[in-house]
Amino acid sequence: MSGVLIIRRIGPLFCPAMRHGPFPLALGFWSLASTEVVPNTERLVSLISEQFLTITGNVTALADPKLHRYRLASAAAARHAALVTRRYARERRAEEPEDLRLEELDPSFCEAAPQFLQIKNESRNMDEFDFVNDCCEPTKFDSLGNEQCFPEWPSWPVRICCAHHLSQGPSKSSYFAGFWRTLAWSIFESTQSIDEPPIAFESHVKSIMAYHKSGVSLSTELVGNVAPGPLTRFLLKNPEETVMVPHDFQVTKFGNHNSLRGGRPVISPFFQSFTRTFSDTKTSDMIIHFSNPLKSEAPQFQHFLSEGAGQVLHLVRRPSDMILSGYRYHRQDLSAGEEWLKFRNPPDCLSCDHEAWFEIFQLCGFRCSYNELLQNVTARQGLQAEYLRSRWDIVKMLENAQAWQSLDHVLQVPMESFHHDFNGTLRCIARFFFDQKPDQIPEQQFSADLERFLEESQGMSPEVLQSCREALLRGEHCTGPRSEDEKSFQYRATTHVASTVERSHLRAELRRTPGWRHFILLADAAFEALLLSSRTRELFGCPT
Q: Whose CB among 65, 145, 236, 298 lies 3.0–4.6 Å from 150's, allowing a Cys bridge?
């Protein structure tokens, strides 16, 4: 990459999308009159980006002045790419102050991707190269981009180039919008379960799959973090003596899966996708916990399980509730939590699609973190940003729910079920994993183990956490289960649970966002249709 990119004004950063003056994130005045984009900047930005330094553990390098310089250069490149994208040009170029406009960006910014690809595929004719299909296709590479096109991940070019090309297709329309229309149509056309012969499956492998803001925290508590949790102790016969610590595993043709290190998800290939595993060394029993499964052209391990290699508990949630929960949680100024919320070089929105990344961070000229953005916009603007951030996870959840709705070895449980009847939902999950129908008389040992499991899980009940949250708001005292530290329990209650008044207010604001009309209302309806046509919950007596 070569060329020079010049910002023509020294002054505060104004946000063209807002009508209330300068964006509060402009901390003082930018003292950078010009920002050079020098050869090899793409590689340099990757190697000193906040993501890369966090992955490698080189936290002290975050204070390097070069990091700030390259962040501004890359932000300018991203801002320019948004302006010249046809979708944004009509809306933004007329509003952009003349002295804030950017000089033309050297077109070689995105040329490195096909060059990298050609090196990996020497026999391929690059005349047939298609940027979207070969480098960015979300159904092939999720939100990561093709590693053959973008070997230095995480980097800005993945987002800048992929978002630009995805919105510049033959119809000059949004790639995501086209994908969602196709999926929604297929869901409403086939909501009835099809009578098919049941798939033979192995019961030794029991798995739980959850999505960001759709059961990851709850399922983590149930399965266990570093030590086995109550569900793991219940499903595996003698975990105290024979269960292995979480470990990495590899399955031919089904990908590599990283477990926890030090109680936190491995930052590889990215934050929200991880797998933790507990295995019994005396039997072949195993429990596997997935967070945010990827879309990929290569089958992933969740597909292996759904095809009969094991049982799957699929935790799903109403899309509007996922967005409300995400907005509230992500705008909190937490001392500990998800690192991606603070990243500004490049800014991150977790597993969001590339077009959504552009729409979110154009609000601050690509110079703020996601957490900073949510703290400095109105609730309605923040909820719109969270809708954009969440929508790719939501369509993956709905797509999996549709594909598995008629499978007896996949139990799809909505998060609302835990709110309405926590113990009843846990009983249903227990019967599912042990293939025991409600009308069957359980063995005495099963009943005793089940009651112990229920007792150990009470501190995870949404109703208990909600009660604690309301008590704290009234200035009263609340405590959790005897096994949990009081401060830890109260922290979970305040950070993960919204008050009734706050939830009602945010839902009213969500209905006024453009995302409500364009996506959320239909996504909620698709969610309801899929739940009604999934037969396994009824089979094992889950609460309705």
A: 145
**Reported confidence tier of residue 45, pLDDT bands at 50, 70, 90:** low
Residues 318/527, Cβ–Cβ less than 8 Å: yes
- Phi/psi at 278 (nearest 5 deg)? -120, 130
- Of 99, 3, 23, residue with least CA distance to 365: 23
The arithmetic mean of pLDDT across residues 382-411, rounded, is 94
CB burial of residue 524 (10 Å; 0-12, 13-18, 19+): middle
Q: How much is the average pLDDT of 350-371?
A: 90
SS3 category, 387: helix
- In one letter, which amino acid is 391? R
Q: How far is CA 176 from the centre of its chain?
A: 16
DSSP element (H, E) containing 385: helix 379-403
Amino acid in position 156: W
Instruction: Please say whether the beta carbons of 456 and 483 come within 8 A.
Output: yes
Q: Which residue has the higher pLDDT, 479 or 210?
A: 210
Q: Is 327 left (phi over 0), alpha (psi -120 to 50) or beta?
A: alpha
Rounded distance between C-alpha atoms, residue 95 and residue 105, angstroms: 20
Alpha carbons 282 and 321: distance in angstroms, whole number: 41
Please classify residue 70 by burial: count the beta carbons closer than 10 Å to its beta carbon, then call 0-12 exposed, 13-18 middle and 19+ buried: buried
Amino acid found at 253: K
Separation of alpha carbons 179 and 136, rounded Å: 14
Residues in CB range of 96: below 8 A, 6 or more apart: 16, 83
Q: Quick one: tokens of 65?
A: 């002045």
For residues 143 and 38, the answer to whether their CB atoms sit within 8 Å is no
Q: Each residue of 217-229: pLDDT tens digit?
A: 899 889 887 778 8
Record the tokens describing residue 302, joined without a space: 């969740």
Q: Which residues pair with 260 in a beta bridge?
A: 265
Cβ 73 vs Cβ 39: under 8 Å: no
Contacts of 328 (CB under 8 A, 6+ apart): 498, 502, 506
